[in-house]
Design a protein that fits this description.
Number of strands: 11
Radius of gyration: 13 Å
Shape: globular
Distance between the termini: 40 Å
Number of helices: 0
Amino acid sequence: QVQLVESGGGLVQPGGSLRLSCAASGFTFRRYTMSWYRQAPVKERELVASITSAFGSTTYADSVAGRFTISRDNSKNTVTLQMNSLKPEDTAVYYCHAPGPNYWGQGTQVTVSS
């Protein structure tokens, strides 16, 4: 049974930090690129960051580049998203995604507000 389970969301003040984690099971995690997406109210889901399987090459949306860092641990089947200097416009539900087999997590809410 495939599972992607996100954790680490919550409420944070502008300028603060959060660290999201995604625990994967039920498929060969190390073979696949992993991504984080987010969806804000009344907006389309958008790609935030991706990391490749073998070499860990990363890509970021322009809106988060320099503030967010994606990483993975293939020995633990986890992918994380370190989010710094958070802004109110980062408020969204964040989803872990394996693009190859098209697996999605259930999402975790991130709210940036004073």
